[in-house]
Model the fold of this input.
Amino acid sequence: MKKLLISIVCSAALIVTGCSSFPWVYRIDVQQGNVISQEKLNQVKPGMTKRQVRFLMGTPLVEDPFNQNRWDYVYTNQPGHGKRTEKRVSMYFHGDQLARIEGDMRPQPGAAQETKPKSQVITVTPQPPEKKGLFRRIIDFLGY
Done:
């Protein structure tokens, strides 16, 4: 009887540890790498300097110390219960100038000109005057 109880408890423990495979268990979305958007990629053109490419695309995920003329941008996204997707873009430089772009996504010619510049409205609200505390008023009165 004691062995049966122990085997039931062990079986229950094994079943409970496998709960992560049930669909109602929450799993987080995992995003890693550089976010590669088509909008940013359309702005990248051959002939740009490394500094300009870094400004538009961000720091590359992989910058090979042995081949400094190649930058790799990798973005992976795995939804909690979905399939993992991966985007890769490699940029090749000749000296300091961008020579070519390879990968899953490429710049679409003419798409950068078609996009309208987004206008931004910035409203500035005046801040109310700061209330001074007792210590601050004493310091101001003494002239420090």
About this structure: The longest helix spans residues 2-17. Strands lie at 30-33, 62-63, 70-78, 85-94, 97-103. The mean pLDDT is 81.
